[in-house]
């Protein structure tokens, strides 16, 4: 018979080791006893699992606690509990306390030592079967908790029903709950080290969650491994044309009910649309589960769960396939820098600062009111690296765009003097975060074809250099300096651009120091900045012409491309995350013309190897004219290293220039105009150089320091591309 102290602790939900008391146990005299804690039960009987025969009725010693000595049995055996519930109903159940530990010592040791980079195979909720008993194995990391129970729709959210077993070597709590099933809601009920009951916690490793404002985790199957299609490896290489269409899934188009679109609705339209415009990749802003719509997903709490806003997770699998079927790569925004303070999340998960740094000078983001992961903690590193691999390996996405890398790299990021803690060397770099990013990128790089892209806004060296060369190991880095400089230039009235000429050329000084991606992202069309069209100066005609010229400049410039949704058709107003894009603008030929231009720029970029093959190498670029500030004209040549060339010319004033002499490289006898952003087809004035088969003959007339030239008509506020004939 169980002693009163143990019984009191079990009934209070405070027992340190419920597996040592509940279930089938022998006493000091070798007699078997069976004990069950089943609040709400009226009667409980012990059955032989094989025959189904009743062995003994359990006595109810106190409300909800049942025990009995087992007659005529000296050894453990397989049994069931027949329960009559006080509120009506009955059932036969396997006893969760009849099962041995679920996780192996070796996998727990690997987790504790930082060697398990797929912790989602162990932790979280897993559908498993033991013999003829199906159920769910739950496991969570909470090393400083006094007691952890899994609660949910399968046990009336009663923390006394399923207190878990602590595996001391790893601080992991686990239990197998028979008869729990896919779709069941659950959370973890945690008693901290001081004996206080914490708010219920969602599962950090949950693969599915309730739609906000509800916060429970949902039992979901583990996705099967999904390797990248073979052709994606080549498409993600540095020498390939990469043009990314950035999308906020909730506001690209609203769903049929006027709310969030489902994954299937998106799959029916978005991949085909992006592919038709010639983009090579779609990049989704964060789709991991997050509590607040207004964060656009950047304050995520579900690092392993596709957001419920778009329907069940299996719909996301169909969306990934739809992208690949259209020949598109899929990148996901991934946020390892910080997480929100919501009480159901990671904050003080087991009553201590477990996932976050303990000191607010390290662990709290002043700008975003969020918490910073403890990048030096073994289990947190596994959690984050595991998440990166999970999306790539289990969902088959091409890669990750890692958000806010600068905030991870520096301990003094956005902190005044005295409000940050130096590293162990006395410096400002976050050595733990640097190490984490390198390790993450090494593991991502082991997946054939997978890539990572850094949003990093500082001059930190080697962001896209290999880790073996001392770099961070990203495949690409957003060129934030190029974006800021060129947009400031474009905002200037053309009459003043002569004084800001270097803003368009400065980026070429460092353009090949990293594998750069040129980003016109969502950040450029929010917080009062207006749309790209609205940021252009001049009257209505000039705004459109400026934007078309700028897109031409961008597509002709070295670096991979990224454009945020809506900007491909010159959205007039600032982006609003709560509304769908204003697709009706495409009825206006000026907006439709910009869309046609983006399609043709992508087509030219992909077809002309000189525009992409050496995007990240200095051998792929040479200036023809970089100093003509007086006329705000820029001209350069792009090369692919095999003899192929493209010439790009930009006129950033509204003054047309007929008979303009343009110096050209040797080795070509004639050039033809391949694209002109001033074409009437795009909404321009249609000044240009024709499409005659003979093209523009090269003349032995010096220009721009070259011995050969061609004579062109240079339209107002336009970018032109010329290719050899």
From TrEMBL:
Highest taxon of the lineage: Bacteria
InterPro entries: A-amylase/branching_C (IPR006048), Branching_enzy (IPR037439), GH (IPR017853), GH13_cat_dom (IPR006047), GlgB (IPR006407), GlgB_N (IPR054169), GlgB_N_E_set_prok (IPR044143), Glyco_hydro_13_N (IPR004193)
Keyword field: Carbohydrate metabolism, Glycogen biosynthesis, Glycogen metabolism, Glycosyltransferase, Transferase
Enzyme class: transferase
Keyword Hydrolase part of the UniProt annotation: no
Record carries keyword Transmembrane: no
GO annotation, cellular component aspect: cytosol
GO molecular function: 1,4-alpha-glucan branching enzyme activity; cation binding; hydrolase activity, hydrolyzing O-glycosyl compounds
Residues of the Glycosyl hydrolase family 13 catalytic domain: 246-631
Reaction catalysed by this enzyme: Transfers a segment of a (1->4)-alpha-D-glucan chain to a primary hydroxy group in a similar glucan chain
Entry EC no(s): 2.4.1.18
Biological process annotations from GO: glycogen biosynthetic process
Pathway listed: Glycan biosynthesis; glycogen biosynthesis
Signal peptide location: none
Matching NCBIfam families: branching_enzym, PRK05402.1, PRK12313.1
HAMAP family from the UniProt entry: GlgB
Entry function: Catalyzes the formation of the alpha-1,6-glucosidic linkages in glycogen by scission of a 1,4-alpha-linked oligosaccharide from growing alpha-1,4-glucan chains and the subsequent attachment of the oligosaccharide to the alpha-1,6 position.
Subunit details: Monomer.
Protein name: 1,4-alpha-glucan branching enzyme GlgB
Record organism: Roseateles saccharophilus
Lineage: Bacteria, Pseudomonadati, Pseudomonadota, Betaproteobacteria, Burkholderiales
């Amino acid at each position: 018979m169980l002693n009163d102290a143990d019984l009191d602790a079990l009934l209070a939900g405070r027992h340190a080791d419920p597996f040592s008391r509940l279930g089938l146990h022998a006493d000091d005299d070798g007699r078997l006893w069976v004990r069950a804690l089943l609040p709400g039960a009226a009667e409980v009987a012990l059955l032989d699992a094989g025959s189904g025969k009743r062995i003994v009725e359990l006595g109810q010693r106190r409300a909800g606690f049942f025990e009995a000595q087992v007659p005529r049995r000296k050894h453990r055996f397989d049994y069931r509990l027949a329960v009559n519930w006080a509120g009506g109903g009955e059932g036969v159940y396997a006893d969760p306390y009849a099962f041995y530990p679920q996780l192996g010592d070796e996998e727990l040791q690997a987790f504790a030592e930082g060697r398990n980079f797929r912790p989602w195979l162990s932790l979280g909720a897993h559908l498993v079967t033991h013999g003829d008993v199906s159920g769910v194995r739950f496991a969570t990391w909470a090393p400083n908790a006094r007691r952890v129970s899994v609660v949910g729709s399968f046990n009336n959210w009663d923390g006394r029903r399923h207190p878990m077993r602590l595996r001391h070597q790893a601080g992991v709590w686990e239990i197998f709950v028979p008869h729990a099933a896919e779709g069941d809601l659950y959370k973890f009920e945690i008693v901290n080290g001081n004996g206080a009951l914490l708010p219920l916690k969602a599962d950090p490793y949950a693969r599915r969650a309730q739609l906000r404002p509800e916060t429970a985790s949902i039992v979901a199957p583990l996705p099967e491994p999904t390797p990248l299609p073979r052709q994606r490896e080549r498409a993600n290489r540095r020498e390939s044309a990469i043009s990314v269409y950035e999308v906020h899934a909730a506001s690209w188009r609203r769903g049929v009910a006027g709310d969030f679109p489902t994954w299937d609705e998106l799959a029916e339209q978005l991949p085909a649309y992006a592919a038709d415009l010639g983009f090579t990749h779609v990049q989704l802003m964060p789709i991991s589960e997050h509590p607040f719509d207004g964060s656009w997903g950047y304050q995520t709490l579900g690092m392993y769960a596709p957001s419920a806003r778009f329907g069940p997770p299996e719909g996301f699998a169909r969306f990934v396939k739809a992208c690949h079927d259209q020949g598109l790569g899929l990148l996901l925004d991934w946020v390892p820098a910080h997480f929100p303070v919501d009480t159901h999340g990671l904050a003080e998960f087991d009553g201590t600062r477990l996932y976050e740094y303990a000191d607010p000078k390290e662990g709290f983001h002043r700008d975003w009111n969020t918490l910073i992961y403890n990048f030096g903690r073994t289990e947190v590193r596994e959690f984050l690296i595991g998440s990166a691999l999970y999306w790539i390996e289990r969902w088959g996405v091409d890669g990750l765009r890692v958000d806010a890398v600068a905030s991870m790299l520096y301990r003094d990021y956005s902190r005044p003097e005295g409000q940050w803690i130096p590293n162990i060397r006395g410096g400002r770099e976050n050595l733990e975060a640097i190490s984490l990013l390198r390790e993450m990128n090494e593991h991502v790089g082991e997946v054939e074809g997978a890539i990572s892209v850094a949003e990093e806004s500082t001059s930190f060296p080697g962001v896209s250099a290999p880790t073996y060369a001392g770099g961070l190991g990203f495949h690409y880095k957003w060129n934030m300096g190029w974006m800021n400089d060129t947009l400031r230039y474009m905002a200037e009235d053309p009459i003043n651009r002569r004084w800001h000429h270097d803003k368009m050329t400065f980026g070429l000084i460092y353009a090949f120091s990293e594998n750069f991606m040129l980003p016109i992202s969502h950040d450029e069309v929010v917080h009062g900045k207006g749309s790209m069209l609205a940021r252009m100066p001049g009257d209505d005609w000039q705004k459109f012409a400026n934007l078309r010229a700028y897109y031409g400049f961008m597509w002709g410039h070295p670096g991979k491309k990224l454009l945020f949704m809506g900007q491909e058709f010159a959205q007039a107003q600032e982006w609003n995350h709560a509304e769908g894009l204003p697709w009706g603008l495409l009825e206006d030929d000026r907006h439709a013309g910009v869309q046609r231009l983006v399609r043709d720029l992508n087509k030219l970029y992909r077809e002309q190897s000189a525009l992409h093959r050496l995007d990240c190498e200095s051998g792929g670029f040479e200036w023809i004219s970089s100093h003509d500030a007086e006329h705000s004209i820029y001209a350069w040549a792009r090369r692919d290293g095999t003899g192929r060339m493209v010439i790009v010319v930009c006129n950033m004033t509204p003054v047309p220039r007929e008979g303009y002499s343009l110096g050209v490289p040797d080795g070509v006898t004639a050039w033809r105009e391949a694209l002109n952003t001033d074409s009437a087809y795009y909404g321009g004035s249609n000044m240009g150089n024709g499409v005659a088969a003979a093209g523009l003959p090269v003349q032995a007339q010096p220009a721009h320091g070259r011995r050969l030239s061609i004579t062109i008509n240079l339209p107002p506020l336009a970018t032109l591309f010329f290719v050899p004939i």
